[in-house]
Design brief:
4-stranded mixed sheet; mainly alpha; 3-stranded mixed sheet; 55% helix
């Protein structure tokens, strides 16, 4: 049992850092839709002499500085609820604030666990795990997730955070995207969110851990409290945590299948020395790719800026690391950057190549061939790039038995209509028009809003803090409309979709 983190550099010194009822269309498409959304089709639609807008990341240094400032904020969030009887009473008071699904799937089994432990067992659990990296850490984080929602801690940011998590989970596990693939073995309820542990950064307790220990039917996702107020690029890392770790652990055997596929692919291409390195780090590598499938290129460039910001915050030079330690289950930052570019290159939207090149160019700025080492292996830049490219392809295209013979990129992908919505939202976030009108909200999801926030913040002369605040408030509006957080038993908004026989004018957007 372990919580999963997006990066290895958050804990100072040591350890791991770690809608409306509209049809969801970010997942699988028909062959006709794929043809209509191909790069060639979009270029034809624009007409001769019309080119796609250039990718603008000239404000990346300002975004990195904002990440660094947020990371240096050591606000720990609410204190641990270590008094057994007081915790029991607070949880009962929070019951009415949870929707029925989460009362049944989280609160009830948590209370049952507390009753089985009793005051003495509860105290013993806390004593046995003083660093809160195992059982006691999960016990406290689950309590925080319930209490912070019920007691209104950072209410606007908490609801915004939950909306992103719900959407990323829905994007892979909702019924609309998963047609032809069985429901996941470990449940389909989106994780609950919490704030805390600033020294551990973004991390998640996947559902297999929460269920086996506490009987909870969803995972728990954490962000440092400061990132409810700042740290735009950190929100792009949520694609890794939720679109990655939690989804990867929802289907029994999926991670092992992908590990084997990666190992075999590298072996066949003559990179046997790196096959084991990548295969052992499949949880982190696949989570990076899944985040990009869910959130598009913003997740790729966002994670590069986020790593640089963390390195700056903790006394480094603001560069991606060229060294991947043998005991570190995260690939080296530099190859994660190349992995991101390789995944973006394979997305199904017309600017995929342009975005991928921007990402590759940024990673190359931090490349130091003299330092480059993966585990115990000295590697060349060419080997690093090629291995990352092969890993991205294997993860995205492998037809997994755990997914009934389908691939991850078949279930979820990023397409031209996603980019169009991002550009639509980017303009609103940049200009201060933060409300979602009815026509705009149709087909817009939280992943689009976060991606738009990142793209808007990266644009030249952008006011990163204002864009962050507008993004959070827009996400809060979306959460207030989310049926999964209403009185009905709706696991994903993507499960509640009408299918019309004809697109009547009132429904055309």
């Amino acid at each position: 049992m372990a919580r999963q983190g997006v990066t290895r550099k958050v804990r100072r010194g040591e350890g791991s850092l770690p809608r409306t009822a509209a049809k969801r269309v970010r997942g699988r498409q028909t062959e006709t839709a794929l043809l209509e959304e191909s790069p060639v089709a979009e270029a034809s639609a624009r007409g001769p002499g019309v080119t796609a807008p250039a990718v603008d990341i000239r404000n990346l240094p300002a975004c990195i500085r904002e990440v660094a400032l947020a990371a240096q904020d050591t606000d720990p969030g609410p204190p641990e609820p270590t008094d057994y009887h007081q915790l029991r009473g607070r949880l009962e008071a929070a019951r009415a604030t949870l929707p029925p699904l989460y009362r049944d799937a989280v609160l009830v089994p948590y209370l049952k666990t507390l009753d089985e432990l009793g005051p003495q067992g509860f105290a013993d659990t806390l004593v046995r795990d003083p660093r809160r990296v195992s059982g006691a850490g999960l016990l406290m984080d689950a309590a925080h997730a319930i209490l912070q929602n019920g007691e209104g801690y950072q209410r606007i940011a908490t609801d915004a955070f939950e909306e992103v998590v719900s959407d990323l989970y829905d994007g892979f596990l909702g019924a609309e995207d998963r047609r032809g693939v069985h429901p996941p073995d470990q449940g389909t309820l989106a994780p609950l969110v919490k704030w805390g542990n600033p020294d551990s950064g973004p991390y998640t307790w996947p559902v297999d851990a929460t269920f086996s220990v506490l009987g909870l039917e969803c995972g728990i996702v954490n962000l440092p409290p400061s990132q409810g107020r700042a740290g735009l690029l950190a929100w792009a890392a949520l694609g890794h945590e939720v679109g990655g770790h939690d989804i990867l652990h929802a289907d029994t055997g999926l991670a092992q299948e992908l590990s084997t596929a990666v190992y075999d692919r590298l072996q066949k291409q003559g990179l046997s020395a790196l096959a084991g390195y990548w295969a052992r780090r499949i949880d982190e590598a696949a989570s990076d790719v899944l985040g990009i499938l869910n959130m598009g290129p913003a997740a790729g460039i966002g994670i590069i800026g986020y790593f640089r910001g963390l390195d700056t915050a903790f006394g480094g030079t603001g560069r991606l690391s060229n060294v991947g330690g043998s005991s570190d289950l995260h690939p080296a930052d530099i190859v994660r950057g190349y992995l991101a570019g390789s995944a973006v290159k394979r997305l199904r939207f017309s600017q995929a190549e342009a975005w991928a090149q921007v990402i590759f160019d940024e990673v190359d700025k931090d490349l130091d061939p003299a330092e480059l080492r993966l585990g115990s292996q000295r590697v060349t830049p060419e080997q690093a790039r090629l291995s990352a490219d092969l890993v991205a392809d294997a993860i995205m295209t492998h037809r997994a038995k755990a997914l009934e013979g389908q691939s991850l990129a078949w279930i979820q992908n990023w397409r031209n209509h996603d980019e169009q919505r991002v550009q639509q939202l980017r303009r609103r976030l940049a200009t201060g028009v933060g409300n979602l009108t009815e026509e705009l909200s149709t087909g817009i999801y939280a992943a689009h809003v976060v991606a738009a926030g990142v793209v808007a913040g990266l644009s030249e002369q952008a006011d990163v803090r204002k864009i962050f605040d507008r993004m959070v408030r827009m996400l809060k509006q979306m959460h207030d409309r989310n049926p999964a957080w209403g009185p009905l038993y709706v696991r994903h908004r993507g499960d509640v979709v009408p299918h019309f026989i004809y697109p009547f004018p009132a429904r055309r957007t």
